[in-house]
Amino acid sequence: METASPITIGQKKQLMRLLNYDEQVKEEVVIAITRQPHKHSLSDLSFADANNLIDKLGGKPAVDYDWAHFDKFNKQHSYLLSLCIQVGWSTLHARYGYVADLRRLSDFLKSDRSPVKKPLKAMTAAELSKIIYALEQIMKFKYR
What residues does each domain of the chain span? Predict the structure, then answer.
């Protein structure tokens, strides 16, 4: 059974700012979301719950691509990002044009289709080679 990812520090700070640093309002909101009267801390919220609340309060929700954090000096990571763009996993960035969609890559690494279920930075060179091979096969299938 997969557990929900926890709220991030950035989300906590943003929520407190959106709630005008009012502790009583914060407690009421957390109790309303969790539906459990003994839970009144922002730490009791999941990442998704916090994002929903941030969105309702008019803020910009956080992105969850924690497994796709990469090292720009690692050649295998660079090639992997290139493959993501070639496969079509890209998003339009205002400054850099089309860039690899890190959320999609992160979701792939967490999925059952990934040959190695680890964050990019935790992988060895051999494990990265397996991910690269999988993306190359996806690309071959797509352009056949």
Answer: 9-56, 66-142
